[in-house]
């Protein structure tokens, strides 16, 4: 059966029906835990066994503490969280510290906690059933990764939050049967300075950094700044280096099969 990636949230902010980054792979693996997770039913949340974080920024982790609190007692095993060493350390220090939120890695007991955590590094591959998840390079203001998610020989690549990162594009170019490429573009070209400062893409920096991908790869744009999505997409569509397949804006509610 084809794997499915459900877009729970992919916006650079909130407001109305906008939700921040959270992607549900089949029904048991979450890639980032932004505000989109809050739309899931309690039953759907309870099925999540693994969470892969791209980085520690709030818009990508915000639902995780509440998710664990809501489903922990209903589950018979811990939710397992993967992230870079810096991401895991930041969560332990600033979120699950007993002050902002309980430390669910030792609650209700150290032997049977609601959450366990593992570190990974760029290039690591985690295989879960017929799915494999590989950490891709990213460049952001904190340590970050993207992910390549593969199933049955077909792959979706996701940039996470990143500014121009040649290592990411080198890895993406090596992927055989890349069906979907999800790449962030947070700012308009008017805000190129801000994009550079915060290590995000704007259309011109994406065009300058991006390497060609197969024309059969659909390119999706995520992390659009609220209220600026139309302008960012218009600027992207004026750039001819993006590739032969016109990039489209990713929206919450979409399901990508691969
Ligand atoms: Zn970020
Ligand atoms: Zn973000």
- Give Rg in angstroms: 18 Å
Strand % is 25-35%
Domain count: 1
* CATH superfamily caption: Ribonuclease Z/Hydroxyacylglutathione hydrolase-like
Low-confidence stretches: none
InterPro entries: Metallo-B-lactamas, Pdiesterase2, RibonucZ/Hydroxyglut_hydro
Pfam families: Lactamase_B_2
GO molecular function: 3',5'-cyclic-AMP phosphodiesterase activity; 3',5'-cyclic-GMP phosphodiesterase activity
Protein name: 3',5'-cyclic-nucleotide phosphodiesterase
Give a written overview of the molecule:
- With 258 residues, this protein is α/β, with parallel strands linked by helices.
- The chain has a single domain, classed as 4-Layer Sandwich (Metallo-beta-lactamase, Chain A), CATH 3.60.15.10.
- The chain is 22% helix and 26% strand.
- It has eight helices and 14 strands.
- It has a seven-stranded mixed beta sheet with strand order 6-5-4-3-2-1-14. It has a seven-stranded mixed beta sheet with strand order 7-8-9-10-11-12-13, covered by helices on one side.
- The chain starts with a strand and ends with a strand.
- The structure holds zinc ion (ZN) (2 copies).
- Pfam families: Lactamase_B_2.
- One of its GO terms (biological process) is negative regulation of glucose mediated signaling pathway.
- This is 3',5'-cyclic-nucleotide phosphodiesterase.
- It comes from Jezberella montanilacus.
């Amino acid at each position: 059966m084809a794997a499915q990636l459900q877009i729970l949230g992919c916006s650079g902010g909130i407001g109305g029906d906008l939700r921040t980054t959270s992607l549900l792979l089949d029904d048991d693996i979450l890639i980032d835990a932004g505000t989109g997770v809050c739309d899931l039913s309690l039953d759907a949340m309870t099925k999540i066994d693994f969470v892969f974080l791209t980085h520690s920024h709030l818009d990508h982790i915000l639902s995780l503490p509440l998710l664990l609190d809501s489903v922990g007692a209903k589950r018979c095993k811990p939710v397992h969280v993967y992230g870079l060493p810096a991401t895991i350390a930041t969560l332990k220090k600033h979120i699950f510290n007993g002050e902002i939120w309980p430390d669910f890695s030792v609650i209700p007991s150290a032997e049977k906690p609601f959450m366990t955590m593992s570190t990974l590094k760029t290039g690591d591959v985690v295989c879960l059933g017929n799915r494999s998840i590989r950490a891709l390079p990213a460049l952001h203001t904190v340590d970050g990764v993207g992910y390549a998610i593969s199933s049955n020989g077909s792959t979706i690549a996701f940039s996470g939050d990143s500014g121009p990162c040649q290592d990411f594009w080198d890895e993406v170019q090596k992927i055989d049967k890349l069906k979907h490429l999800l790449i962030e573009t947070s700012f308009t070209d008017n805000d190129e300075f801000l994009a550079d400062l915060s290590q995000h893409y704007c259309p011109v920096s994406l065009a300058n950094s991006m390497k060609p991908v197969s024309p059969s790869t659909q390119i999706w744009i995520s992390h659009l700044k609220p209220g600026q999505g139309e302008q960012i997409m218009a600027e992207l569509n004026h750039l001819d280096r993006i590739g032969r397949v016109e990039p489209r804006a990713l929206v919450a509610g979409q399901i990508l099969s691969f």
